[in-house]
monodehydroascorbate reductase (NADH) (Daucus carota subsp. sativus), 434 residues
Amino acid sequence: MAEKSFKYVIIGGGVSAGYAAREFANQGVKKGELAIITKEAVAPYERPALSKGYLFPEGAARLPGFHTCVGSGGEKLLPEWYAGKGITLFLSTDIVKADLASKTLVSAAGDTFKYESLIIATGSTVLRLTDFGVQGADSKNILYLREIDDADKLVETIKAKKNGKVVIVGGGYIGLELSAVMKLNNLDVTMVYPEPWCMPRLFTADIAAFYEEYYKNKGVKIIKGTVAVGFNSNDNGEVKEVKLKDGRVLEADIVVVGVGARPLTTLFKGQVEEDKGGIKADAFFKTSVANVYAVGDVATFPMKMYNDIRRVEHVDHARKSAEQAVKAIFASEQGKTIEEYDYLPMFYSRSFNLSWQFYGDNVGDAVIFGDNSPKSDNPKFGSYWIKDGKVVGAFLEGGSPDENKAIAKVARVQPAADSLDVLAKEGLAFASKI
Ligand SMILES: Cc1cc2nc3c(=O)[nH]c(=O)nc-3n(C[C@H](O)[C@H](O)[C@H](O)COP(=O)(O)OP(=O)(O)OC[C@H]3O[C@@H](n4cnc5c(N)ncnc54)[C@H](O)[C@@H]3O)c2cc1C
């Protein structure tokens, strides 16, 4: 079996890998020095498109339209771009063994890859109901969404089950985005989740009430406070019914499960320090092993603003952490230093005609402002989170680019707030003053 050596290797070919590759090129990586090894069959792309434009019934997004780094307004890096820069892409290559001591990776096909510096960018994998032993969870047409192959399976199944019934298990951002796009595909959609409201990790009850009502007005049915405990299938092994813990049974031609993800760190277990479920990294994304970096979903890193250590599963951090790691690698080779990573958390989502952004920390007391009527033609509302007399987080639905910038600034600056009432009254005007 072949052995190949590179100065730099990135394991994983997702969002972080694409942004890292661009930064390597900016830093003047030489031809033949960098390889990206990924089990996906395509060059790095903007993963968030998979639960949005990729599933549209008309005018759907397709590669090469959403290769990185187009999602942040940058150049679309096509396979030819990598070839032109002398960056080797090993596609459809699953690394099954990593030995950090001997700086060696081994693929499922038995090929060996040697490196001087490694960037771990393996991202996350979905949690599967089969992992929890849910009865019938291995039936056909119970689907998940992480990679482009999963999205292709979803597209095929949507076509095969035209006007059918879909049950979405999970009320997080995957559940919300998929319910919306399934509805756009004219399917009969029911969402099921155990929490009292959707997206409870971020949304307050007030924020969630808007989205739940908006979705109901679009014809999405929502069942809260219970979970799927089993599935019945037909003679072909295709899912037909979802059994809920509260005794109800829902008909289903398709089930899409979005109940969370876990970082892919297994290959490195026992070889590198971990913290909070991820690979522990410093402000330059260096791990506890020399010349090994971890970025994106797998990295647990110092969140300077909050004097805390966190792991973040969002695309903005995947992009920025990758760029920081590559800058740090080149700086250390030149005996220079760069500034510490000082990340302001940023999450966003889009569904139907809605689009929200959130910046900062959702801790303390929250106050809602603006027009949050689900019947409104152009709803625009937001929320501030206040802790110890300071505004620490800000959410905005329907904001313009300038308005989103203004709420980002609030979360970064953390201005003092006199009272929740004043914030509720001033709304966006408060952000515009900062
Ligand atoms: C459907 C979907 C929608 C999303 N929407 C949003 C959104 O709207 N907003 C937001 O902020 N975030 C969103 N996210 C989250 C965001 O996409 C991730 O945080 C981001 O992709 C993380 O980047 P990453 O490079 O760490 O991992 P990934 O982009 O997941 O890339 C990891 C890569 O590593 C490869 N890999 C893993 N293990 C191996 C191995 N052993 N050998 C070879 N290759 C391997 C994988 O195949 C994959 O290509 C979404 C995620 C999904 C799945």
Observations:
- The chain has three domains: 3-125+262-334, 129-259, 353-433.
- Residues 108 and 306 are 41 Å apart (CA to CA).
- The mean pLDDT is 97.
- Residues 129-259 form a domain with the FAD/NAD(P)-binding domain fold (CATH 3.50.50.60).
